Amino acid sequence: MKVIDSCACEYDLASTLEIVSEFGPDMVVLDTSTPSIFSDVATGAAVKKLFPQCFVVLMGTHPSALPEETLALDGAIDAVAVGEADYTLRELARALSETGTRRIASEPGFRESVLQRIDGLAWRSGERIFVNRKRDFIDNLDELPFVSRVYKKHLDVR
């Protein structure tokens, strides 16, 4: 796992892609909102161009409010997490790890059988867009890990 906060570090697209290239991810998650949606989609598409087997996911307020419209912005975006993304993304990462991103990318029927089971996910298979059942709200937020440790490990926090 690697966290890159391109905005906070003032990285341009080329710098961000250089870091992503060094890491070689199987899954990339971009946190986005309405003001940055087009830039974030372009970043996701650029990652997909570098790593065609990489599963590119958007999360945040804009994709949560407009999942189908967000996926329609660019065919390079594989999915969006709708609503509270914590468990949706964890489940997706586990599914991709267990089944392999190459198989998900190359076998549409297999892709559908895996992705349709993940609540809170809107995703594409070919030209079709699917929106799964909403994920229930998290009842106990204290069960989530404290995120500061993750940021401290992966970011230069000042």
Please explain how this structure is put together:
With 158 residues, the protein is an alpha/beta fold. Helix content is 48%, strand content 15%.
Question: Helix and strand layout, with pairings?
Answer:
Blueprint: H1 6-9, H2 13-23, E1 27-32, H3 37-50, E2 55-60, H4 61-65, H5 67-72, E3 79-81, H6 86-99, H7 101-106, H8 108-115, E4 121-125, E5 128-131, H9 147-154
Parallel strand pairs: 1-2, 2-3
Antiparallel strand pairs: 3-4, 4-5
Helix pairs in contact: 2-3
User: Based on DSSP secondary structure assignment, what is the total number of beta strands?
Assistant: 5
Distance between the termini: 21 Å
Strand order within the widest sheet?
Answer: 1-2-3-4-5
Class by alpha and beta content: alpha/beta
Which oligomeric state applies? single chain
How many helices? 9
- The sequence of SSEs as H and E is HHEHEHHEHHHEEH
Any low-confidence stretches, pLDDT <50, length ≥5?
none
Q: pLDDT average, as an integer? A: 87
Largest sheet: 5 strands, mixed
Q: Work out the strand percent.
A: 15-25%
Helix content: 40-55%
What integer value in Å does the Rg equal? 15 Å
Globally, the shape reads globular
